[in-house]
Automatic annotation (TrEMBL), chains A, B:
Homodimer. Within each dimer, one monomer is responsible for RNA recognition and catalysis, while the other monomer binds to the replacement base PreQ1. PANTHER family: QUEUINE TRNA-RIBOSYLTRANSFERASE. It comes from Methylosinus sporium. GO terms for molecular function: tRNA-guanosine(34) queuine transglycosylase activity. Belongs to the queuine tRNA-ribosyltransferase family. The gene is tgt. Substrate binds at D93, S94, G95, G96, F97, D147, Q190, G217. Catalyzes the base-exchange of a guanine (G) residue with the queuine precursor 7-aminomethyl-7-deazaguanine (PreQ1) at position 34 (anticodon wobble position) in tRNAs with GU(N) anticodons (tRNA-Asp, -Asn, -His and -Tyr). Catalysis occurs through a double-displacement mechanism. The nucleophile active site attacks the C1' of nucleotide 34 to detach the guanine base from the RNA, forming a covalent enzyme-RNA intermediate. The proton acceptor active site deprotonates the incoming PreQ1, allowing a nucleophilic attack on the C1' of the ribose to form the product. This is Queuine tRNA-ribosyltransferase.
Length: 376, 376
């Protein structure tokens, strides 16, 4: 354990990095996947089971938590870790993304964003300073700067306006964050799908005193090649000695491709959301358990999986639970998916250490392409 | 382990009994509470967590399972235990109760009940013989006779007709059950709220070759005193050497009162259903977590509980999860409730062994009356 936030690069394989983020609440092995705990819960999972999948850190959403149960309330109850019974590191987003995608009657200006809650219509204001205050009240270990995220595709003019606003908000976020002992603050690269805007944003943020840099405004609907092209453009301008976090990404293949390009941290609702909708992620690709062909299939999803839930229940049973809309179906598939994501990250980390990332990726893709385990 | 079903009376305290049901799949300590696993899952619980609460046996519903996924399918997949990953004893009801309460366009005659599925409208027929066949296909350890259960209040004529039909179906069920090695078949006492009908039913069933006797047609809307009066009437006519199962009961107090009168086995959806609706059962009574007074309460539901989920999460957090309709709220409260029911049964068993049941019940009621732990 450390008293300060730090990042150490342990190994490289090409551009891919194996690292260790240290925080007073524990270490985060990178490349890392952070399960999303939107409303102070990784949906449909007990926190001890999230931990058991190998997760070192989870994410909390400022937008959701400020509206319900409220940041001041969480602080009075001892902070988000105690509240959700997760004593390990937590990263909070800044609210910037979700205030634009979820809230009603938004009004954005230089100061921040005024909006109405999607839950009860109550009025709120988010600014860089208030976002920092909320993240401090939640007592998260890694704070994110307040930013404006535009959807792709968008005009370059729109991307430029939002990027420059986000840079000014980055400065205000950094100032408001101050010298929070043991905590980290990450800046967020914006700039839409424009090469010069992305480079300008990355360079400006690299020159500020952040503990890590995130790449935002991707995985917002664009094709994978656009996202990867942006990574190729941005990453050379990010400081080698700071962790790099690609926000909201993604599919297992998105993650593999991004690790290959030097990304260290990821978060995405995909494994948890898919688990609530009858979809499983496995070493043999994605399996839709709604499909009637599973109804009589006694085989488990993956009898070689590390996760017992992927071994101990037949596809027929999972199909039955999904069809009957049983909560246990969501519980099992969510756990199986989060465990697979963590298994993939562990594999990537080991492969980078051993200098055999290319082979590992080839083997991983072979598994996905081969389709379900039964086809063996 | 035993190769045959058996029941041993270990201790008595007044009319209350401490016993042991033995089956080839494991023992059931009585008085026992059986969590309900309607559609091959105790809703919102992993089977290993059901076990960890202290449950020796769960219940499966013939009506639900015959419609989805289908008894022949479960048999082809290796039986219900393997299907739901619960290797311990399972009791199945006969379908008689739910076909009357859930299905559409029922037509009942001497032969059985023709009905349409509430799921997809498909047509089915349940008879004593088909019910036995389905329970055999599911491979349950304790089968229930096929019966007709009338709702209370009802006329004596209606109760009499249904009771006599149920007796004829009891004979057909017994014959169809045959000599299933290691399995048990229980008869079901009917007769509405009529003393002579209940006694006639109990005597007739006591004279047949059943492994245990159940009391059906109670907990169907009548006040507790009507239910207890029926127990006082029926139980003296049940054989001492066979286990007694009160179907569909009940609240913690219903269970305590029934154990006091000599009942050995119970099942009820109450702890699981309540858990999905924001209600907790604890040593300090029932707690409605929806209530806003919990919003800032840092205290757990019961810091002295055996169940970690009752100790490790604040009421404020549980309130938040319930308000936000988070699945984890249902998971935690279901587990807490099932664990409390099992803790209550363990307490009853120990008290009977020690001949201090009256004291235990007085202490238990004192806890419920005292209200929530915070009031201490």
């Amino acid at each position: 354990m450390t008293e300060q936030f730090s990042f150490r690069l342990l190994a490289k394989d090409g551009a891919a990095r194996r690292g260790l983020v240290s925080t007073p609440r524990g270490d985060i092995r990178t490349p890392a996947f952070m399960p999303v705990g939107t409303a102070a819960t990784v949906k449909a999972m007990f926190p001890q089971d999230v931990r058991a999948t190998g997760a070192d850190i989870v994410l909390g959403n400022v937008y959701h938590l400020m509206l319900r149960p409220g940041a001041e309330r969480v602080a009075a109850l001892g902070g988000l870790h105690k509240f959700m019974n997760w004593p390990h590191p937590i990263l909070t987003d800044s609210g910037g993304f979700q205030v634009m995608s979820l809230s009603k009657l938004r009004k954005l200006n230089e100061e921040g964003v005024a909006f109405q809650s999607h839950i009860d219509g109550s009025r709120h204001m988010l600014t860089p300073e208030r976002s920092m205050e909320i993240q401090r009240l939640l007592d998260s270990d890694i704070h994110m700067q307040f930013d404006e995220c535009v959807r792709l595709p968008c005009t370059d003019a729109e991307a430029e306006r939002a990027m420059r606003l986000s840079l000014r908000w980055a400065e205000r976020s950094r100032k408001a964050f101050g010298d929070a002992k043991g905590k980290a603050l990450f800046g967020i690269v914006q700039g839409g799908a424009s090469e010069p805007l992305r480079i300008e944003s990355a360079k400006a943020l690299a020159g500020m005193d952040f503990h890590g840099l995130a790449i935002g405004g991707l995985a917002v609907g664009e094709p994978q090649d656009v996202m990867l092209a942006m990574l190729d453009i941005v990453i050379p301008h990010l400081p080698e000695e700071k962790p790099r976090y690609l926000m909201g990404v993604g599919t297992p293949d998105d993650i593999v491709q991004s690790v290959l390009r030097g990304v260290d941290m990821f978060d995405c609702v995909m494994p948890t959301r898919a688990g609530r909708h009858g979809l499983a992620y496995t070493r043999f690709g994605r399996v839709n358990l709604r499909n009637a062909r599973h109804a009589d299939d006694a085989a488990p999803l993956d009898e070689g999986a590390a996760c017992a839930s992927a071994r101990d229940y037949s596809r027929a049973y999972l199909h039955h639970l999904v069809k009957a809309q049983e909560i246990l179906g969501m519980m099992l598939l969510t756990e199986i998916n989060v465990a697979y994501y963590q298994e993939l990250m562990a594999g990537l980390r080991e492969a980078i250490e051993q200098g055999r990332l290319a082979d590992f990726i080839a083997e991983t893709k072979e598994g996905w392409a081969r389709g379900e385990a039964k086809a063996l």
